[in-house]
Amino acid sequence: MTWYPIKPVISLSLLSLVLPAQAGLLDAYTSESAPLAGKVWDTQQRRFTNLESVLEQTPDGSWLLLGETHENIDHHSLQTDIINFLASKDRLANVAFEMAHSAQQPLLDGANSGEIEVTPEALDWQAGWPWEWYQGPVTAAINLADRVVAADLTREQKMQAYGDSSLNVPASQPYREFMLDLLFESHCGQMPKSQLGSMLRVQYSRDRSMIDAINNNTAESGVSLLIAGTVHTRIDLGLPYWEPDLNSKTLLMLAADKDSDPASYYPPSYSDKPVADYIVFTPGFDYQSGC
Q1: What are the E-state strand segments in 75-167?
Q2: Number of domains composing the chain
Q3: Residue 219 maps to a domain
Q4: Rounded CA gap, 260 and 249, in Å?
Q5: What pLDDT, on a 0 to 100 scale, did the predictor assign at position 150?
Q6: Coil, strand or helix at 225
Q7: What Rg value do the Cα atoms of the chain yield, rounded?
Q8: In a domain, 53, yes or no
Q9: Under a CB-based contact definition with an 8 Å cutoff, are residues 98 and 149 in contact?
Q10: Nearest one of 237, 213, 208 to 224, comparing CA atoms
Q11: In a domain? residue 112
């Protein structure tokens, strides 16, 4: 018997009207008042790309460092969307959080296995990281990731680093000067400059803790995520600075305004190199200074 192809009765153009369009990951993050919101800028190629392509082309066994502004709710929603997207493609490996310290790891493992309820009380979630901000990405990670990793130091470990004057921070002088100024400004100019060296030791120790968490939880297949503040994920200041061979890419999430030039959003640096591999623009956000 000979089979003959049957001509479709609906043209492709008509079919596109019948089938619903697939929503993009960033469709919910556009804004009329911010032309770049919902766009991704590739700082190396100096061109726009799309988030789906970035995630799909990220190699197995590597990490994406998602740099957030902590109080921006859009950033937490987008983190949740990224976790869900990678899981839907069967490419999600582990998810690490700056917001969880090492003593919480048994609780996160228990939640991962279903033995512990996913509540702030059961996870001993710290009040300094409001649960209403992080419930989305943490819950998604617990439900979908192979492992949820506590990447930060405990308070006691931070205090130990603060008081350990023998702890060497192997940074260049330009890095050191820039970070000391940044720490001074982030504490509203109220911290005595004599204490800034101690704060730098804490910053370095926290970065090393996150690097250790990554190195100890790298999967051979799939993509792993680190969710952390922008400074920890920046190429010039954070984890990639201390470990240049770290198998990672940085996606910096930044709130956009009316400016349509991506380069104008590059954070100040002591270096002329881009501070991230990609910038993901989210809608404008009214940041309230704590000073």
Answers
A1: 92-101, 147-152
A2: 1
A3: yes
A4: 24
A5: 98
A6: strand
A7: 21
A8: yes
A9: no
A10: 213
A11: yes
Distance from C-alpha of 207 to C-alpha of 151, rounded to nearest angstrom: 9
pLDDT tier for residue 203 given thresholds of 50, 70 and 90: very high
pLDDT at site 22: 55
Q: How far is CA 152 from CA 122, 203, 206, 245, 278, in A?
A: 18, 11, 6, 21, 24
Sheet of 223-229, strands arranged across: 47-49, 40-42, 278-282, 248-255, 63-68, 223-229, 92-101, 147-152
Give ∠ CA 230-232-238 in degrees, rounded to 5: 120
Phi-psi domain of 31 (left: phi exceeds 0; alpha: psi -120 through 50; beta: other): beta
Encoded amino acid at 86, one letter: L
Report yes or no: 222 and 60 within 8 Å, Cβ to Cβ.
yes
Q: Residue 10's pLDDT is what?
A: 35
Query: Helix 155-163 to helix 196-215 angle, to the nearest 10 degrees?
Result: 130
Q: Which residue type, as a one-letter code, is found at position 174?
A: P
pLDDT tens for residues 22-45?
A: 579 999 999 999 999 999 999 999
Whole-angstrom distance, CA of residue 252 vs CA of residue 235: 10
CATH code, domain with 262: 3.40.50.11550
For residue 126, pLDDT beyond 90: yes
Task: Provide φ and ψ at 174, rounded to 5°.
Answer: -60, -40
> Structural domain of residue 142, as residue ranges?
35-282
What stretches of 6-115 show up as alpha helix (H) in DSSP? 12-18, 51-57, 73-88, 105-112
